[in-house]
Amino acid sequence: MSLSISIVGGGYVGLVTGACFTHLGNNVTIIEVDEKKIDSINKGVPPIFEEGLEEILLKYSGTRLFATNSYASVAECDVSIICVGTPPNPDGSSNLEYIRSAAISIGKALKDKNRYHVVTVKSTVPPGTTEKVVIPEVLKNSERKSDNIGFCMNPEFLREGRAIEDFLHPDRIVIGSSDERAEGILKDLYSPLQAPVIITSLTAAEMIKYTSNSFLATKISFSNEIGNICKKLGIDVYDVMKGAGLDHRIGPHFLNAGAGFGGSCFPKDVSALISLAESVGEKPKLLHAVIEVNEIQPLKMLELVHSRIGDLKSKRIAVLGLAFKDNTDDIRDSRSIPVIKGLIKEGVDVIAYDPMAMSHMQKLFPAISYADSIETALNNADACLIMTEWPLFSQLDEEFSLMKQPPVILEGRRMIKRPDVEGICW
Ligand code: UGA
Question: Which CATH superfamily is domain 299-423 in?
């Protein structure tokens, strides 16, 4: 069955969701405010880097996939999906301004439609948002009753850089719904995918997303804490986590100790859950610790470099990896940011390299040097810090002979197999 879908928000979640639903045979209109993005999507050129996205856009842009700044498509389609951002407020809570405005615009667009319509929230929102913000705004602005508009909350579990793969091969699909008809339409939409479908209340679906991201972030901070203890005891934390992770109750994934987690999701979502917990009188001690460990972890790279080369003033230090993880140009909350800040403060001559993210980092740190190759970055360097798990770094070996000898190679990710490499937790 093919459906007509409007997606509000053409960021990485909205665009990937739109592209994948088109790929599965539906007609999709992406509603976006940024004219440059609209133009780019309609030309079949992805405005962000995401593996596999270009092929889908080239195939369907202008035939079954369109981008526009108008909400007119909402009245013509079967399902609208809200994929706008929920950026953090200064106190860590989620800013729901874009969610509210999307709900108002969808409501207004539905005023003259009589056919049943499903409004779905895919953005990560605090439990209660769909019921307390989206449903009332859509109903008020459409002047329609809830019997011919259904509401769903359908969180995404997409990793940046692997989002198409994650969308098409999910571990599970979570659908929170207000009524069985809406639930049935969403189930149909996902029916080409082979994955268990979990049906919940709207609020449980919202909470599942925060729980998943907070648990994954907890696994990382836990591994880092064990890694810090192992480092002091001279034990290899990767051997330890391999041994522990093969217990099926623990699981082998997300146990890689190192410089900690970055990105636009884990830091923001754990902080939002903390803020939500405190707003209802709970003291989430564990979640606070997850953030605290993550903030201290990259600074351990600075301690390590000090312990190896002493005073850092005027030393030349290569930083390899600026993106918050491999396969993306995204530097949001990247663990290399506090490290570069610390190095600058100590008067270091920083030379940075990343296969994709240098232009973004240049805006944040215009005064450091950026190398056009790994070799240029390493040339005559007093130390090299590896901050991102780019697979190409794992092949480095001979290149380190360009550094001052013997080379000081320090890793925030476990990438390089050489006896003279020291890691943040190993
Ligand atoms: C994360 C979740 O993995 C997705 O399921 C979720 O949908 C998404 O957030 C979101 O909320 O939209 P993402 O932020 O793209 O996805 O990145 P991850 O691949 O999960 O990595 C996050 C960070 O954790 C990276 O900085 C990575 O280097 C770090 N990490 C990951 C570790 O330090 N150790 C590990 O073992 C795994």
Answer: NAD(P)-binding Rossmann-like Domain (3.40.50.720)
